[in-house]
Design a protein that fits this description.
single chain, 271 residues, alpha/beta, Rossmann fold, six-stranded mixed sheet, three-stranded antiparallel sheet, globular
Length: 271
């Protein structure tokens, strides 16, 4: 399942990863980055987006990335994870990726984040904004909940004593400030968190629910997630968002329409 700041897309795990990768590709291509115009991309470091990273096939030469979080005292964990799973496979400049330290200032200096990609935990946390976090929070150090420590033990040979108990994380407000937010949700164990994210009101105990306050969000105005047939019926519409850009332009021109900024329709671009 993919929650985007403008819609909710119902897909299985592999399809969601491929869809997300193609959407990021199209978003960067249509932004048309250059030496004086970098595309700013916020990235998560959990396990859900790994397949998304492995689906990419475009230039990141003029892309700046900001990582959502890193362990206090063990920043190399996420640095090496992002390098091995993503950065070393693309043409991004080695000094371009930015991790959490001074993140707020660097995002502002870059003109804000164009697209923030994220995953969630079973308890609905986004980045390391654990249950109870402020929905307007900024980058800071957080103490990890036991559920998060247990979930991440698999990255430390199953040894709970090795799992860091604190992390530096972007705030919920930092994420929501992005012009677009795309959240990947996979696995039955996250179904209740997804329900809390879009079917109920915003709640600081389920920090992903803050996505409802993004200016472009309309997922909560759609029928409930349990009406799966509805979302499957939108598959053709969602697939047009990840068609090759040239194909999109031909279809638009054929229909006598004009491409706007962002994703072929100006209403998808936050001012």
């Amino acid at each position: 399942m993919v929650i985007k700041s403008t819609r909710l897309v119902e897909l299985n795990f592999l399809d969601a990863s491929e869809w997300a990768a193609k959407y990021i590709r199209n978003r960067i291509i249509q932004f048309n980055p250059g030496p004086d115009k970098y595309f700013t991309l916020g990235l998560p470091t959990g396990s859900t987006p790994l397949s998304c990273y492995q689906n990419g096939d475009l230039s990141f030469k003029y892309v700046k990335t900001f990582n959502m979080d890193e362990y206090v005292g063990h920043p190399e964990r996420y640095h090496s994870s992002m390098w091995n799973n993503f950065f070393k496979h693309i043409d991004i400049h080695p000094k371009t990726p930015t991790f959490c330290d001074a993140c707020e200032e660097k995002i502002q200096a870059a003109g804000g984040t164009e697209l923030f990609v994220g995953g969630i935990g079973p308890d609905g946390h986004i980045a390391f904004n654990e249950p109870g976090s402020s929905l307007v929070s900024r980058t800071r150090v957080k103490t990890l909940a036991m559920d998060t420590i247990l979930a991440n033990a698999r990255f430390f040979d199953g040894d709970l004593t090795k799992v860091p108990i604190m992390a530096l994380t972007v705030g919920v407000g930092t994420v929501i400030d992005a012009r677009e937010v795309m959240i990947l949700v996979t696995g039955a164990h996250k179904a209740f968190a997804l329900y809390k994210a879009i079917e109920e009101g915003m709640n600081h105990m389920w920090t992903v629910s803050a996505s409802q306050q993004h200016p472009l969000t309309d997922a909560t105005l759609e029928p409930k997630v349990k009406t799966v047939k509805y979302f499957k019926a939108l598959t053709l519409v969602h697939n047009t968002l990840v068609d090759p850009v040239q194909y999109q332009e031909k279809e638009v021109q054929k229909n006598g329409q004009t491409l706007g900024n962002g994703w072929g329709c100006s209403r998808h671009s936050r001012q």
